[in-house]
Structure formats: structure tokens, C-alpha cells
Amino acid sequence: ALFAQIEDAIKSDGANLVKKVKGVIQFIITPGGAWVVDLKNGNGSVTEGKANGKVDMTLTVSDADMVAIASGKLNAQQAFMRGKLKVKGNMGLAMKLGTVIKAASNKSKL
Q1: Beta-carbon count within 10 A of 34 CB
Q2: Is 45 strand, coil or helix?
Q3: What is the tens place of the pLDDT at every residue in 22-77?
Q4: What pLDDT does residue 110 have?
Q5: Looking at residue 107, what is its pLDDT?
Q6: What are the DSSP calls for 15-45, one per residue?
Q7: What angle do CA 52, 41, 88 make, to 5 degrees?
Q8: Contact assessment for residue 20 and residue 96, using Cβ atoms and an 8 Å cutoff
Q9: On the chain, which terminus has fewer CB atoms closer than 10 Å, C or N?
Q10: How far, in Å, CA of 42 to CA of 92, rounded?
Q11: How confident is the model at residue 101 (pLDDT cuts 50, 70, 90)?
Q12: Is residue 84 within 8 Å of 65, Cβ to Cβ?
């Protein structure tokens, strides 16, 4: 559901999100699957599965912790410090994830 909300946010404000984030993020949710959020090319996109090309950052997190982060019950930085959230690649992009999650949560309230 979160990735559908991110996709809706990209559809309505993708160009703006691409300007803010400028990166391709691979999410690995355990258990659950993988998604690629491309906020670098065109107006952005969300695709299910592992990336075919290069990603700027890979984020690995449990399904429950991702839901908690997205709902604001768990701070992403605290999750990282506790080892609940693993980041590989461009750490600067991790700091911009709040923008993406906020855009997605704004869409879910409509």
C-alpha cells in the first residue's frame, strides 16, 4: 500500500519530487519483496522487483518497521541507529526519504 501511495504522489507531483530527491532507491522489504523508486529520471516511477540497472541507494527494512516509519511511529534515523534499517550507497538520499514518505502520506489523507 505504501508503494501505491508513493506512486500516486509521483503521478501528481513527480517532476517536483525528482528535483528534490535526484536518486534511484531500491527498497528491500522483508518479508514482502522489493521495489524501485526512481526519482532521478523523467517524472519518476515506482516498479516492483529488483532494479535492472544501477541504484543510488539500497534500503533494507522489515515490513513492520517500514509501516511504522511511514506512519510516523518510528523515526527513520532511530531505526537506522538501532540496526532496524540498513542503508547501502548514497547516505544523503536517505535524508531525503522523508520528502517522499511525506508526499505519499499526504496523498493517503485525501
Answers
A1: 16
A2: strand
A3: 999 999 999 989 999 999 999 999 999 999 999 999 999 999 999 999 888 999 88
A4: 43
A5: 63
A6: HHHHHHH-EEEEEEEETTEEEEEEESSTT-E
A7: 55
A8: yes
A9: C
A10: 21
A11: confident
A12: yes
